[in-house]
Each structure stands twice: as structure tokens, then as C-alpha cells.
Specification:
This protein has one domain: Rossmann fold, CATH 3.40.50. It has eight helices and twelve strands. α6 links the parallel β9 and β10.
Length: about 260
């Protein structure tokens, strides 16, 4: 069953004459993991931001359906409550906001939206320990303020930990591999692999093929100038790593 259906999506910047997405079509089934690759400025992060509901972007045309319903009708917080999670390329620090309090509030807000009972403090702390153990996360990270003083790798691991705690239906990872060394990359990839199941879909946005050596996608899409120029299986990523994006750009230009 389709979890996410994007049809002819055109997006610009609100109050500016800037057209970024120019007719994106994409369908992600429940249980699948798709990767979106492409050069800088192709529209990958804009697509992630639109799915999460960032208000600086304006949908000019097209539709997005999430679990059969119109996603564009939902406010950002409603999308989060409905199970959409965005892991940022540059996670923000929240000085003075403890990880435990932040996550407890977020988890119970999502549970309330699902019609589930709130977790008690004891239940929540047990769940935190279980998820941290599952991901091999240093327990000390969960005792600090959100991302404050974290290294780049720690911030990205923390994003995956938040994903594990919130248990979204659709997880969007916007260049989560950016700036990671090999150990941190493998840690993030292992976390994603442990969270893949038949009830959740992933959209992994990346510049590079290397994370896809550890997270094997069901489908790869290449964005070029605001459109999906080519789709394929995991072998497409290896071709891009070897030959770059220029051959796809030439194909698009020849077809125009």
C-alpha cells in the first residue's frame, strides 16, 4: 500500500519568484526505503522541507497524499503527530532543554494523537534505555541538553535515537550522512537498518553513494533541476559514484 504519493509537485519560495520543484512524481510504499540523490541545488532538501511542512515554501501545483489523506492540509505539528519525522542535515542545539524532558514531551504528544495512554516516567525511562541499547548509543548522551556540545556524529546518532523513540510511519533523513566519518556513518546506517520494518517507510536524501553501501534502498531517484530525472535500483548509485551526474544531465537536455 502506498504510504506517500507525490504527484506533479511544483514548489516555490513564498513571496518570491523562485520555482524550485518542477513536477515531482514519487510513490513510496509502506515498508520501503527510497533514496534520493542529486547535485547541489537540485531540490532534494526542499522536497524534505515541504513534506515536513516548513512554511517558507509554497506549493504552486500538484498534490501529496500520506496514508491516503491530503498531507498539505496538515500543519507541521499535525504531520509530526501523524507519524512524519524529519532528521535534519544540521541538527540544532537546544541549550538548557534536557534530552529526557524533550523526548518525553514529544513521545507522549504523539501517543496522545494516536489515542494511546501517556507513558509514565518509569515506562518512558525504560523505553529510553531499551532504544539506546538497541542502537548502541552512549547512555550519557541522553542525560545532556539536546545536542548541546555534541560532535557532528553525536548529533546524527541522536537524530536516529529520536526516530527510534518516536516510531514514525514515515522517516525522512535529509543528508544525515553529511560530514560523518566512517564510524559515525556505520553507526547511523546500523540504526536505520534496525528500525526498518513492514510498517514504516524511509526517504533517505544523500549526495553520496557511500551510505547506500550500508543502507540498501529498494529504489533510487535522481533529482535534477527540480525533477526526478531517473529512477532505478541500487546499481544506479554505483553508476553515479563512478560517472557522476553529468550523463543524466545530458540525457535530460537531449530529451527536452
Amino acid at each position: 500500500m502506498a504510504l506517500l504519493e507525490i504527484e506533479n509537485l511544483h514548489v516555490g519560495v513564498e513571496d518570491e519568484d523562485i520555482h524550485i520543484l518542477k513536477g515531482v512524481d514519487l510513490t513510496l510504499d509502506t515498508g520501503d526505503l527510497h533514496a534520493i540523490m542529486g547535485p547541489n541545488g537540485s531540490g532534494k532538501s526542499t522536497l524534505a522541507s515541504v513534506l515536513a511542512g516548513r512554511e517558507e515554501y509554497e506549493v504552486l501545483e500538484g498534490s501529496i497524499r500520506y496514508d491516503g489523506d491530503d498531507l498539505l492540509e496538515l500543519e507541521p505539528e499535525e504531520r509530526a503527530e501523524e507519524g512524519i519525522f524529519l532528521a535534519f542535515q544540521y541538527p540544532v542545539e537546544l541549550p538548557g532543554v534536557s534530552m529526557t524532558n524533550f523526548l518525553k514531551e514529544a513521545v507522549n504528544s504523539v501517543r496522545e494523537a494516536r489515542g494511546e495512554d501517556e507513558l509514565s516516567s518509569t515506562e518512558f525511562l525504560q523505553q529510553m534505555r531499551e532504544r539506546a541499547d538497541m542502537l548502541g548509543l552512549d547512555a550519557d548522551l541522553t542525560k545532556r541538553s539536546v545536542n548541546e556540545g555534541f560532535s557532528g556524529g553525536e548529533k546524527k546518532r541522536n537524530e536516529i535515537f529520536q526516530l527510534a523513540m518516536l516510531e514514525p510511519r514515515l522517516a525522512i533523513l535529509d543528508e544525515t550522512d553529511s560530514g560523518l566519518d566512517i564510524d559515525a556513518l556505520q553507526s547511523v546506517a546500523n540504526g536505520v537498518n534496525k528500525l526498518r520494518d513492514g510498517d514504516r517507510g524511509f526517504l533517505v536524501i544523500t549526495h553520496y553513494e557511500r551510505i547506500l553501501q550500508y543502507i540498501v534502498p529498494d529504489r533510487i531517484h535522481v533529482m535534477m533541476d527540480g525533477q526526478i530525472a531517473r529512477s532505478g535500483d541500487k546499481d544506479l548509485a554505483e553508476t553515479l559514484e563512478e560517472h557522476g551526474y553529468e550523463w543524466i544531465r545530458e540525457e535530460v537536455a537531449a530529451a527536452a
